[in-house]
Amino acid sequence: MAIWVTTARKSGATMAARCLTRRNMVNGGGSCSAFPKSHHSLNALAGKKEKENSSSLLGFWRFKSTKASAAAAVDQLYSSDEDVTNNHQGLDFPGGHVSYTRSLNFISNSSTQNRVPCYRVLDDNGVLIPAAGGGSNSGDFQFHHHQQPLISQQTALKMYREMVRLQVMDTIFYEAQRQGRLSFYLTSTGEEAISVAAAAALTPDDVVMPQYREPGVLLWRGFTLREFADQCFGNKDDYGKGRQMPIHYGSNKLNYFTVSSPLATQIPQAAGVAYALKMEKKDACVVTFFGDGSSSEGDFHAGLNFAAVTESPVVFVCRNNGWAISTNVSEQFRSDGIVVKGQAYGIDSIRVDGNDALAVYNSIRAAREIAVKQGKPVLVEFLTYRVGHHSTSDDSTKYRPVDEIEYWKVTRNPVNRFRKWVEGNGWWNEGEESELRSATRKQLLQAIQAAERTEKPVLEEMFNDVYDETPSNLREQHVQLRETIKRHPGDYPSDVPV
Amino acid sequence: MASVLGRYGRKWSLGCVSYHKNYLPRFSTVAHSAVPSEPIQQQQAGRSMNLYSAINQALHIALESDSRSYVFGEDVGFGGVFRCTTGLAERFGKHRVFNTPLCEQGIVGFAIGLAAMDNRAVAEIQFADYIFPAFDQIVNEAAKFRYRSGGQFNCGGLTIRAPYGAVGHGGHYHSQSPEAFFCHVPGIKVVIPRSPSQAKGLLLSSIRDQNPVVFFEPKWLYRLSVEEVPEHDYMLPLSEAEVIREGSDITLVGWGAQLSIMEQACIEAEKEGISCELIDLKTLIPWDKETVEASVSKTGRLLVSHEAPITGGFGAEISASIVERCFLRLEAPVSRVCGLDTPFPLVFEPFYMPNKNKILDAIRSTVNY
User: Name one GO biological process term (chain B) (predicted).
Assistant: First the structure.
C-alpha cells in the first residue's frame, strides 16, 4: 500500500491528486495510471491487458520495508522485465490472471505513514497555490494555461454568499433551539465549503442524497429560509408535514432526497438511483453524502460494492470531519481514512481538502464528469473538521479540548479562507459582508417568527401517506382518536387542528 | 422525478383484467368491503403448472408490460435457485435482470433507490431466513419513505420476494416464517399466496401496487402445488381475504402452505359432522378484518394456524382483533395451532410443525368447549 504513494510523491503532488484507483487490474479496462513506468515491472504479466496498462498488479502489493537488508527481499517481489515475457509465470483463476510470487510477504498497512495526499487549491490564507510543474497538469478544471481560475466571479460570489448564509442560518437556528423555540438542530459549522461548493459543481438534475449535514446544497439550489424554518417547526407548510424532527429536510423539486436519521442507509439507495439514471440515459449523476462514522456501517460497504458492480454513476462523498459524536476517527477505523476504501471496491477515489471551496468545487466537477461520462462510481473524501457540536443534544467540550475547536474555528475556517480569495480578486468587501450578514439575520428572524406562528398540519396528516391510500385500520384509529380527543382535549396540543 | 405514472383509476372489482403492453397500471388495492372476491375467471385457457412456474410467468408478464421494471438478486440471472427467474435474463437482458453481490442490505437498499425513481424493482432474497440484514432498509427506509417525505418521495414500486417456510429438511436457516416481524411495520404490505394461480395474480398486484410489498413464497409448494393457471395477465386484490371453504361451526384462518394442511383437517372434521369455514388471509398487512369478523360472527369459533412460532406470531394479532370485535359471539377461546417456540429444528421438524392432527384436535376441543 505504501510504495505507490511514495512513487506518487516523487512525481509530484499533482500525480497523486489524480484519481487513485485500482484500475480494474484483474478485469481489464482502464488505462490511466498515476505511476511512471519505471516504477513497475509486472504489468505485462496481466496477460491479455494492453502493455500500456501501467498500474502494476504487484505494485499494489508493495510494502515498505524499514530494514535495509529487506530491500533485496522487496526486489524479489518483482520479476524482471525478462520474466514478464513468459506468460506461464502467471496463474489463471476465476476473476482473471494474476502473477505469482515465491516470496511470502504481507501487504503492510500503516495508516500513519505514507497517507494519501490531499488535493487543495488555496492555501490557508486563501491564496492560489501554483500547480506543481506549472501549466495545466494539475488536472483542475478551473485552471487554464495561465493558471487563472475559470470559475466565474458570479459562481464564486454565489458560493461565498451561500456559505455565509449557511453560517448565519446555523447560528440563528442554534440560538432558537437554545431558547426553546425549536426542539432540535444541528449545524454544518466548519463544513460550509463542502455542501455549498459541491452543489455549485453539480447541475440541477443531479440527484442529491444527503446524510444530514448538507443543507448548503439546498441553499444553493434555492430552498428558502422560510422553507427551512417551516420544516424545523413542523408546521403545515413543511413539505414533510410535521412528521420528522428538525433538519430532516427534503425537496422533490430540488432533487434532494428527504433526510432520514439512520446513518448510511442512503448509500446503497444511491447506487439504485444512479442505476435508474443510467438506464434512463440521463446526463445526471447521484451525489450522496455521509460522514466518517457512516463509513463504518455495513451499508457503506454494500453501497460501494453495488455501485461498482452495476457500474452506476454515483459520486460517494465522505465528509471526514474527525468526529462521530464523541468518537474520534482513531476509534472509527485503522485505515488511512476513507479514500483508501474505494480502492477495495474498484472505485476511483480522491482525497480533498474539504475546507478549500475551490478544491471542493474542482473535485466534484471532475468526479461528476467521470461518473456521468464513464458510467461508474467515484469516491471523494473531504478532510475537514466538525467545529460545532454534533447537535444541540451534544456538548463536545466534554470529549475534546476547547482550544482544538477554537483552532479550527478561527485558523482553519473555510468561509474566511474563501472570503480572502474572493476579496483578493476584488470581488467582495467588508461592506458587502456586513450587509449580507445582517440582511440574512433579519430574514431568518422573520422566517422563524412566521414559521412559529403558522399552525401545525391537521391531525389527518398523521394518518396519510403511511400507504398511498389510507387503509381501514387507520381510518378506524383516526375515528377512535377523534372521540378520545373530544373526551380529553387537555391531553393534546392545541396547535394541531383536529 | 418521483411522480407516479398515470393512475388508471382506483376501482378494483374483478379478479381478472387484461393489460396491454405499454400500459402502466397503478392500482390501489385496499379492501373496502367484506364481500369475498369472485374466483378467478378464466378469460383465457389455463395451463397446468407449479408454483415456481406461475411466479416465473408473473415475472415475465411484469417485465413485458412495464419497461421500467427490474428483477435482481443473488443467482437470479441463470434462473434462480428455485427456477423462479428462468428465462428472464435471456428475454429482457442483463441490464433488467441481473445477479447482485451477496448482500441483502445492498439488494434492498439498491431496490429502494431504483423504486424511488419510479421504477418497479423486484428484489429477490434467496431465503426468507436471510432477509434480516435488510431489515433496517425495509423498516426504517422502505416503510417510511413516503410518510417521512410528506409524500414527495416514495418507493411504492418496490417488491421484495423471498421463499419462506418448512421444506421438510431445511432446519434453522432454510425454513423460517418471518412474516410476523414485518406485520409490525406500518408502511409495507405483506402478501403470502397459497397456490400457483393465487401466486401469479397476487405477485402481479404486489409489483404494481404503489406501496412496498414483502412477498413470501411457500417454498414447499414450488414444485408440489400444481394447478391450472390462466396464462393471461391478471391481478388479484390485496388486503382481501378469501373464504375458500364455507362452513358454519368454526372459522379457520391461515395463509400460504399451511392452508392445504388446514384444508385436510377440515375435510376430516366434516366427516365428524363439524362444518369448517376456511379463510385464506392472503395479505397479512393491511389485513381484511371484515371478512374474518363476518365469518366468526356466523360460526362463533376461531382457529388460526401458522408455521411460525406461536409466541408473538401473527395469529396473536388476529386473535386479539377478533376477540375485540366478536367477544360476545364467541363460543370458545380462539385457538392457535402453530410452530413451537424453538428455532426451526431439523430432525424434530415433524414434531415442531402444526400438522393436520394437531389442527383436528384443536377443532374438536374448540367445538366441544
Answer: response to nutrient
